[in-house]
């Protein structure tokens, strides 16, 4: 039985159990992982343009493992926001003691802005107050990035971690998001547009430690260098996967 099939009393019981297992109150920052199940020819297809669908899938799986590594290390509540209602059980299998919700109601479709607004509403209705939202494609993120975002929320409504490509790799908020539907998602204008949109809604915004996500082989080259001294197991496994499928001379020469 999936979460969407549970009765209201069963959902409340499950939520109570999750709170007890997390052992941290919901006024602690909650890590929210927006997650799409890696599949062949779906996800990270920009990498596949310069390699193969199989290698892109392996990278996507390794990136997901890094995000789950962050979730397991999080000192507080963790929520996986699953992109597809059919993947709830799969998402639940990724880690122990983690709540899984869907990004939209069953049968609904919408862009990332609509999904963020929906998840934000659901979690605030459950009592979550400070949300730290990430995806699965920024393994450069570490505790320093997360603590910088949490610190920024002490004095601001919104904390953003700017990405090199003009997007964001962390979106943190202690107040509800304004309507995000019409923002230029997946463009190099997103970070600036999100900042201005929040400010227009009279919300205070602070940029925290920047980072970058992985879309192209050039991103993998940079990541291969930057993760050399990162001893986290999933990051080391990602390095091996990059080396196996994208052993480009320019990358290896910097190792």
Q: Low-confidence segments, ≥5 residues, pLDDT <50?
A: 1-6, 17-22, 250-255
**What class do helices, strands and sheet pairing give?**
alpha/beta
Total domain units = 1
Corresponding CATH superfamily = Spore Coat Polysaccharide Biosynthesis Protein SpsA, Chain A
Task: Give helix % range.
Answer: 40-55%
- With strands numbered from the N-terminus, the spatial order across the biggest sheet is 3-2-1-4-6-5-7
Query: What is the helix/strand order?
Result: HEHHEHEHEHEEHEHHH
Topology:
Elements: H1 8-22, E1 30-35, H2 45-48, H3 53-73, E2 78-82, H4 88-92, E3 99-102, H5 112-126, E4 131-134, H6 143-153, E5 158-162, E6 168-173, H7 190-200, E7 205-207, H8 217-226, H9 233-245, H10 249-252
Parallel strand pairs: 1-2, 1-4, 2-3, 5-7
Antiparallel strand pairs: 4-6, 5-6
Helix pairs in contact: 3-9
Describe it for me?
It is built from 10 helices and 7 strands. The chain has helices at residues 8-22, 45-48, 53-73, 88-92, 112-126, 143-153, 190-200, 217-226, 233-245, 249-252; strands spanning 30-35, 78-82, 99-102, 131-134, 158-162, 168-173, 205-207. α3 (53-73) packs antiparallel against α9 (233-245). The radius of gyration is 18 Å and the shape is globular. It starts with 7 loop residues before the first helix and ends with a helix.
What would you say about this model in short?
The protein has 255 residues and is of the alpha/beta class. The protein has one domain: Spore Coat Polysaccharide Biosynthesis Protein SpsA, Chain A, CATH 3.90.550.10. Helix content is 43%, strand content 13%.
